[in-house]
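ESCALATION

Customer reports they have been waiting on this structure for their group meeting. Please prioritize. Original submission:
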Amino acid sequence: MTATSPHSPLTPPHTTPPHTAPATAAAAPAPPAPAGAPPAESVPDRGAPASAPPASGGATVTAGDPAALHTPVIAWFETNARDLPWRRPEAGAWGVMVSEFMLQQTPVSRVLPVYEQWLARWPRPADLAAEAPGEAVRAWGRLGYPRRALRLHGAAQAITERYDGDVPREHAQLLSLPGIGEYTAAAVASFAYGQRHAVLDTNVRRVFARAVTGVQYPPNATTAAERKLARALLPEDPGTAARWAASSMELGALVCTAKNEGCARCPIAARCAWRLAGKPAHEGPARRGQTYAGTDRQVRGRLLAVLRDAPGPVAQAVLDTVWNEPVQRARALDGLVADGLVEPLDNGLYRLPQG
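Update from on-call: job pushed to the front of the queue and completed.
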């Protein structure tokens, strides 16, 4: 995800439902994306594992016995959830939405300072909407995948124009906003408004794969079967469902990680289908990792860094100094222009987008 949420861990879900950004440092790597492509709707997070009591006896959980998961996982969350700014009441729905955008494929440790600066500068969607989109790109800094900044800016404009500056409550309305997909809409509706939605990020998918399906990793892309399982496991009460979404996400982020999983600290280890089966090794497609060094993504990042730091337009000759391979450099710059992240001007000058 994630992903994403105002609230302290112990506040009631209908007021400030908690959640944790999806995926951890140990999370299963996401499939590589084309240079400059938008990230998948997941929210990796690399917080240090929290402590939890060892599990006691029990039977394997099935989709027909969801309460066997809900009660221990939510209880674990109440004690072990991290205190993150988007979980606090003052964050509001806008704070939740900003966190969801930022946490996609980006660890919590990198998001925290940017998130706090962003909310201090733009505490409401209308504040961001009033600025040029290039300012969103500039403030995004080195979070990566800067098209997220443009999409968040576009969402802020739509919220200001269509909903009087308030993040909408309805799932369908959230889905209609620029840059909002199924995951983010469900996460905001759940974490900001305490609604009943299946919130499927990388962490949650891994917890369900192991505890219920009995496999080490979920598929590389979310499947219809996973969505069906998530709906089957969803508590009927909206507030409990929102709490469950946050709890299962945090469990995957801190305990049921992709590598070096902490089964001794897991509240449902004694009921986990994968552990009871002897932790069979993954038999599906290889887990694909992402590379960065030497890629167009790295070149794009260097070009944007120069433009972000410059007080005005930047000459082509200055941009040419950031990478010594001219064909790749030109391709990366053309991609930034095509993505709307850079505006070409006359006389070989470039700047961040202004309109």
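Sent to customer with the following note: Strands lie at 314-315, 343-344, 349-351.
Escalation resolved.
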